[in-house]
Amino acid sequence: MSDALFPRPRAVVAPGAVHVPGWLSPERQRELVAACREWARGPVPIRHTVLPGGGVMSVQTVCIGWHWQPYRYTRTADDVNGRPVAPFPDWLAALGRAAVADAYGDPAAGGRYSPDTALINFYDGDARMGMHQDKDERSGAPVVSLSIGDSCLFRFGNTEDRGRPYTDVELASGDLFVFGGASRFAFHGVPKVLPGTGDPTTTGLAGGRLNLTLRETGLKEGRVSNADRRAADR
Ligand code: SIN
Ligand code: MN
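== Alpha-ketoglutarate-dependent dioxygenase AlkB ==
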């Protein structure tokens, strides 16, 4: 929220990586929470993603537009219930364009942005996300991250590996974080959520942290995986 005790200024964390505190109005946060609640019910229910090695992610995830499972996008949620995911709505694409335009102070960059998938992550108090790159997309377009509910520690690193140098940023309810350009493939993660820091009356979220990442997959219709891509490249 923008009524923090101390002002939290917009910050360029790394080239192409911009944090804009309090970007979402309280009303917009509530609308997003309501929309995410619906998407969490179906057609593909929110679930803990199972990793190929058998590990289970502590966050719960539901996807719209395209379904992400490690490490590919498909139209149907083959690792959940096989159903097509909910469509990616035009209003969310418009929000993504506004986010890019505002973060970069560049309306043309916003106009070019055409996100077609969102990963919606819900973190309860114990959930975390390890350092990783968003690299299953075939597009270098920015990732737009919107946070609602409890604050978290967001770690934004470098493009080489999971280690230092990195910058720790507190993402609070309503904050926007955009990473594109030279930072598009930077490692990032969420080492911890700060339980009880959200404001349920503002957001409609009783507890926990909601994060939406909007992305351009660069994919066309049909089922395309990294394995398909590698086969096509041979
Ligand atoms: C993600 O990297 O997919 C999510 C990041 C976040 O929850 O802030
Ligand atoms: Mn990510």
